[in-house]
Design a protein that fits this description.
With 223 residues, the protein is mostly beta strands. The chain has a single domain, classed as Lipoxygenase-1, CATH 2.60.60.30. The chain is 14% helix and 38% strand. It has three helices and 13 strands. A seven-stranded mixed β-sheet has the order 1-11-10-3-8-7-6, with no helix packed on it. β12 (174-183) and β13 (186-196) form a beta hairpin. InterPro entries: TerD. This is Tellurium resistance protein.
Length: 223
């Protein structure tokens, strides 16, 4: 049996075969970790020494922007059915039944140590045609710059496949992170890191799904 791997998906090496690493069954966890400017400023305020340092740090914390990032997964199955797993609309999915993908938390602040997590049941991978991992700003100002967002896919035995959400353009409010699909008989993760801005049009999920030809229809939702 091959040893657990740690692979960084980059522009130069954007794809990895799960089959070649022996990851063909079980659960795979997709973790989004990021730091909001406000959470970072609050930590700095808590660590500040001296009265004036604490006052300055508290003022920076109060002025820092808050950002709520949402991790999601668009799913297209081999039978033509399609759905999305995301916090919006409380579409948290399920691991033991369709769509065999589930979101287990909604980090609204960027302060949770474990971030947000999706779980994919590879025991049903034959039913998956495409899994598109994406993230967008649900609430908050600005864009992804300075958030240090990282997505890590981890198998049950400890294989780690890491995607850094870098080179964010100004005003980017959403990102297609990675596409998981069958390629030459193997399940492959492909780094996308494709950014979307307000100029791409309203309804970011609709814009992303059209960009990847997933054929999904969207209605307004809330959480």
């Amino acid at each position: 049996m091959t040893k657990p791997a740690t692979v960084n998906l980059t522009k130069a090496a954007p794809t990895v075969s799960l089959d070649k690493h022996g990851v063909t069954s079980g659960l795979i966890k997709v973790n989004l970790n990021w730091t909001s400017p406000q959470a970072a400023a609050q930590r700095a305020a808590g660590e500040a020494r001296g009265l004036f340092s604490r006052i300055r740090a508290s003022l920076r914390s109060a002025a820092a922007r808050t950002v709520d990032l949402d991790l999601g997964c668009m799913i297209r199955c081999t039978d033509g059915s399609k759905t999305v797993v995301q916090a919006l609309g409380n579409a948290f999915g399920a691991v033991d039944r369709f769509p065999y993908v589930a979101l287990d938390s909604d980090d609204r602040t960027g302060a949770q140590e474990m971030g947000e997590n999706l779980v994919i049941n590879l025991g049903h991978q034959a039913e998956f045609q495409k899994l598109l991992l994406f993230v967008y700003i649900y609430e908050g100002s600005g864009d992804f710059r300075g958030l240090d967002a990282v997505v890590t896919l981890t198998s049950e035995r400890g294989d780690r496949f890491r995607v850094v959400l870098d080179e964010c353009p100004p005003q980017a409010h959403a990102c297609a992170i990675a596409l998981i699909k069958r390629q030459k008989g193997e399940l492959v993760i492909g780094r996308e890191v494709r950014w979307f801005t307000p100029q791409d049009g309203p309804g970011v999920q609709d814009v992303i799904s059209r960009a990847y030809r997933l054929g999904m229809k969207w209605t307004p939702g809330r959480k």
